[in-house]
Amino acid sequence: xxxxxxxxxxxxxxxxxxxxxxxxxxxxxxxxxxxxxxxxxxxxxxxxxxxxxxxxxxxxxxxxxxxxxxxxxxxxxxxxxxxxxxxxxxxxxxxxxxxxxxxxxxxxxxxxxxxxxxxxxxxxxxxxxxxxxxxxxxxxxxxxxxxxxxxxx
Length: 153
Known about the structure:
With 153 residues, the chain is of the alpha/beta class. The chain has helices spanning 2-7, 12-25, 51-56, 72-80, 98-109, 123-133, 140-146, and strands at 30-33, 40-41, 46-47, 62-68, 88-94, 116-120, 136-139. The strands form two sheets. The chain has a five-stranded parallel β-sheet, with helices on both faces. Strand 6 (116-120), helix 6 and strand 7 form a beta-alpha-beta unit. The longest helix is centred in the first third of the chain and has 14 residues, at 12-25. It is globular and about 40 Å long. The relative contact order is 0.19.
């Protein structure tokens, strides 16, 4: 039934990617997402086609958007205007290293490390921060390559 829901709106190879990512996401109560190049294609100025599907079908997880930006106010407005905003528990934009932001969110919401999955595209910021804090993580570029896709599909 899960696959049928996607069959009409996404190509089969993207359906497979969404299913595999959803299986990973559904193992966690809290998902810390990056925005740019993880769920949002800055070249096309739009969400990747699969992003909304993953958020819509993971209602049991709480989602947090943590986005570094040269223009934090502009990035915040972009995210607030997106269809994902209604799915977010919290939104942070700024110019701080993400490890500190992850720690703040963990403290604010009293989230143990084992309940968190970090999904990002930047090895030096999101992924390294997750490793340093003992958080599980998905490097989105590696994840999509594993399934023979590009993140923009």
